[in-house]
Amino acid sequence: MSPAAPPRARVLAQLAATILLAGALVAGMLLPFVGGTGVAARNSASLLDALPVELTDEAPAGNTRVLAADGSLITMFYRNDRTPVPSDRIAPVMKDALVAIEDSRFGEHNGLDVQGTARALATNLAAGSVQEGGSTLTQQLVKQTLAQTADTAEERLAATEESVGRKLREARLALALEEQYSKDEILTRYLNLVYFGQGSYGVQAAAQRYFSADAAELTLPQAAMLAGLVQSPSVDDPITNPENGQNRRNQVLQRMLDLGMITQAEFAETAALPVQVAPGAGAPNGCIDATMGGFFCAFVADHLTGTLGLTQEEIETGGLTIQTTLRPDLQRSADQAVLRELEMGDSLAGTFTAVEPGTGHVLAMAVNRRFGCDGPECESVNLNVVAGQGAGSTYKVFTAAAALERGFPISHVITAGEPYVSRVYKDGGRPYDVENVGNGYPRTLSMTDALIRSSNTYFLALEDQLGSVEGPVRMAERMGMRFSATPADQIIAENRGSFTFGPEATSPLYLASAYSTLAADGTRCDPTPVTAVLDRSGQPLTRDGRPVVTGDRCTPGAVPPAIATTLNQVLVGDTESPYGTGRNAAIPGHRIAGKTGTSQDNLSVAFIGYTPEYAASVMVYNPKEREQVRGFGGGMPATIFYHAMAPVLAGQPAVPFTEPPPVPRAPAPTAPAAQASGGDAGDQRPGRPAGRPGGGRPGG
């Protein structure tokens, strides 16, 4: 028919088509069930067998909620903003308004209302336009459910196409629903499902969006307004089209008056009111809307899909509850600590990343950036996780641990030259050499003193005595380090003598994780941001009968406990000793073990500090281009650590590190002798570069 056909002619065509459909419904399917004044499904077994699983769920799935460790909301993930509520949390006037305008015989029919359909057709024909719908609320529930839960475009078309076949199936399923569920259950499900405009699905989301209220608090004018939106949410939107919204609201009120749901006085008073809305913000959606920890949220999202194997469909439509490990108090404190040193959007990014020793729970991820937005203050790359710049002398601990495992005592003494020229490692064919920056340190140092003072010459000499970087690299891996920029096998194959000085691109998360292994007396735990994933009913989400979250993934003895506890006692000196390079991180009343680091050319500075309960790394560098960072690891990074951790530790008793077991003295393994000469130490940038394969310039 031509688009220019008169409206009455189009309505006549619709009437004819519907008469044919009604005939098909009655003759082809429903005649055996007609009885009395309504339509009754007498063979309920055959009808119920046809119910899709989507129609047997108790309620539509709501938004997936992401919760912090204390239960507070971080954000939500959803495709449609919906918060299902039970019947007793929906105002009765809302139910009345919807029934009045959408299906006034809802309480009388059994899912299919032939009488109501005929009346609607007559009304529409007389008006020359569609004034009443012919489908019952139950039929609409079937259609909306199948359309909103469709996985493919074909399924969505099958749920909404204007065909006799679809109407027949819809009618049959409506009858089956009426057999299985009460009227109030059907009405509640519909109110939780239907789209009200402004991105709001379900009455609770709509009440929040239009009136900043809960569904239980809706008043008569508000309920009438929402009920009127169901047919044409955009046309009758009271926010963007208040005049249309008012007219439609008054149509609902008139219908409620005609049905005796409200009095003449209530109608007159309410219909005279202008449109009154109090728009509220929609529910947060995704990590860009996170109330805190946007970069932590991004790590959670990657963990859900990459590690736990959830699909984006499950996350956005499953109504899940994601219980995370985020500590809001530590996250807030870390955010403030980073911003004390570096303003939001500074060219230098400062990251603070904390994990819990013994569990691997990620506690906080702070950075002077906003996640996912556009602008100079924004960043979509998770700087807390990716490997950016090197972490400098924080890697000396890996060499020390490897040496202890080889049998070197923590008291092992080396007198190293200045500069120290390696007898093992090469720099472009020449012997690799390093030097310290600064004066006043003894030439001869023990491993303890060399760690506290962060001596470059000592640790290259110690690498010489180990004979290869394989031990330090494998120890780093066992502690939890991951090498993504340059694989560990390549570092070993090239025998990069610079490894102990940390030039390799380092992830702040895995640096914190590696040191947390020491804090846990040698137990390595994979970093995890999630402790539980619950389905829409509050039960653990399963795969093949097993929960997708099965607990912490820890490996006791990844580092021998004697080595871990020994290093813990030594690294306390980094913050407590007058020669320590991390004194800015010291927190009165608590023993803080730590290590500073400064990479080649001061392109990054780092500090890793820990107690038996917390391990946190701080890195500062420019993630976009080469930029020297002022100071060293004991400056900004150690200061950020202090300001982040001091408020958290202030209210907690000090927890001591485990004392190392007594170790009998044993002679050090036979190794090449270190070069004897004067040496200075410090968490400093050394004086001259060294290339590959020996590695880049070491740093303190």
Automatic annotation (TrEMBL):
Chain segments carrying region Disordered: 656-700
Gene3D superfamilies documented for this protein: Biosynthetic peptidoglycan transglycosylase-like, DD-peptidase/beta-lactamase superfamily
Every Glycosyl transferase family domain range: 71-256
InterPro entries: Beta-lactam/transpept-like (IPR012338), Glyco_trans_51 (IPR001264), Glycosyltr_51/Transpeptidase (IPR050396), Lysozyme-like_dom_sf (IPR023346), PBP_transglycosylase (IPR036950), PCN-bd_Tpept (IPR001460)
GO CC term (a single one): outer membrane-bounded periplasmic space
Biased composition (Pro residues): 658-670
Catalyzed reactions: Preferential cleavage: (Ac)2-L-Lys-D-Ala-|-D-Ala. Also transpeptidation of peptidyl-alanyl moieties that are N-acyl substituents of D-alanine; [GlcNAc-(1->4)-Mur2Ac(oyl-L-Ala-gamma-D-Glu-L-Lys-D-Ala-D-Ala)](n)-di-trans,octa-cis-undecaprenyl diphosphate + beta-D-GlcNAc-(1->4)-Mur2Ac(oyl-L-Ala-gamma-D-Glu-L-Lys-D-Ala-D-Ala)-di-trans,octa-cis-undecaprenyl diphosphate = [GlcNAc-(1->4)-Mur2Ac(oyl-L-Ala-gamma-D-Glu-L-Lys-D-Ala-D-Ala)](n+1)-di-trans,octa-cis-undecaprenyl diphosphate + di-trans,octa-cis-undecaprenyl diphosphate + H(+)
Record-annotated Penicillin-binding protein transpeptidase domain positions: 350-645
Domain of life: Bacteria
Pfam family, one: Transgly
GO BP, sorted A to Z: cell wall organization; peptidoglycan biosynthetic process; proteolysis; regulation of cell shape
GO molecular function: penicillin binding; peptidoglycan glycosyltransferase activity; serine-type D-Ala-D-Ala carboxypeptidase activity
Record keywords, A-Z: Carboxypeptidase, Cell shape, Cell wall biogenesis/degradation, Glycosyltransferase, Hydrolase, Multifunctional enzyme, Peptidoglycan synthesis, Protease, Transferase
Family designation: In the N-terminal section; belongs to the glycosyltransferase 51 family. In the C-terminal section; belongs to the transpeptidase family.
Protein name per Swiss-Prot or TrEMBL: Membrane carboxypeptidase (Penicillin-binding protein)
Organism name: Geodermatophilus pulveris
